[in-house]
Amino acid sequence: MKFNSDNLKIAVQKKGRLAEPSRQILKSIGLDFEHYEGRLFSPCRNFPLDILFLRDDDIPEYVQDGVTDLGIVGLNVVQEKAAQVVELDSLGFGTCTLSIAVPRNSSFRSVYDLENKRIATSYPRVLKRFLEMKKIKARIIEISGSVEITPSLDVADAICDLVSTGSTLQINELEPIEIVLKSEAFLIANPQSLKDPKRQEMTERLRVRLQGNLRARRSKYVMMNAPNEALEEIRKILPGMKSPTVMPLAEEDMVAIHSVVPEDVFWDVMEKLRKTGASDILVVPIEKMVSE
User: Regarding beta strands 49-54 and 219-227, do their DSSP bridges make them parallel or antiparallel, or are they unpaired?
Assistant: First the structure.
């Protein structure tokens, strides 16, 4: 199977923590493609897009060099590779932190306590920039894997590694003392591809789908009944779209109100709505949402 040179190309992780979520988000925006173990390339049947399955460390450089137009990869990898790419959109998954952690029984309480100490990491470039910003002189020991075991082997005094749940740190009796970088999955692009009118147009079509999916996942569709006299107060409370939908009910002086509420403020909004007299509040998930 050969690449179609006219198609847009996107690289995603073939194995690892971002692999399955990356495939899922592409499927969720209607892209029809096949994937199975060992497959390195898959064309979409219903969109001019070819998908490459690569090692996450290779994705920024493939995008930088124009082998692919787009990539889905963790911000931590982009920063470590210092790739010349455009960071287009955060994708709402793969959230983690690159953190400095120390042995639980050590005397280190601050990152400044690590002056002239040894820090093991798989992210030497990011850590070096961070230490320089903090004006801390420490010896960086580059480790390709199993960073968390280095303090117990007396290879390092501290580590700088990815933390998601923190369970690996707990198992190895380590505790985080400083966040170096907050990371999540990002859509990145080759700068030259964005200058090509045809590829830019295809990229924007893809981004509209992705952004609609993200807005839907971060929002709830809310329906309620309320006294007509509470309508203006409810309008002020609802932080959603430009204007809620308002419909009269058979019961005099009552209206039905439909709106979209961001999930991060959902419960605060619900409490305020109930105080206005809103009742029969129904909340449903949103599958897709496209707005200006």
Answer: unpaired
Rg, the chain, Cα only:
24
Specify the pTM. 0.82
**Please, what's the b/e burial string for 24-63 (b: 16 or more CB within 10 A of its CB; e: otherwise)?**
ebbeebebebeeeeeeeebbbeebbbbbbbbebebbbbbb
30, two tokens? 């209607």
pLDDT for 133-154, tens place per residue?
999 999 999 998 889 999 999 9
Residue in this structure with the two tokens 């198992």, named with its chain if needed: 171
- What are 229's two structure tokens? 């006299």
Lowest mean pLDDT among 120-134, 142-156, 179-193: 142-156
Annotated domain spans of the chain: 8-93+185-216, 96-183, 219-285
Q: Which CATH class is domain 96-183?
A: alpha beta
8-93+185-216: CATH superfamily: Periplasmic binding protein-like II (3.40.190.10)
Please tell me the least confidently modeled range out of 54-63, 232-241, 246-255.
Answer: 232-241
How many C-beta atoms lie closer than 10 Å to residue 275's C-beta? 10
The CATH number of 219-285 is which of 3.90.1720.10, 3.30.70.120, 3.10.290.10, 3.40.30.10? 3.30.70.120
pLDDT over 70 (residue 161): yes
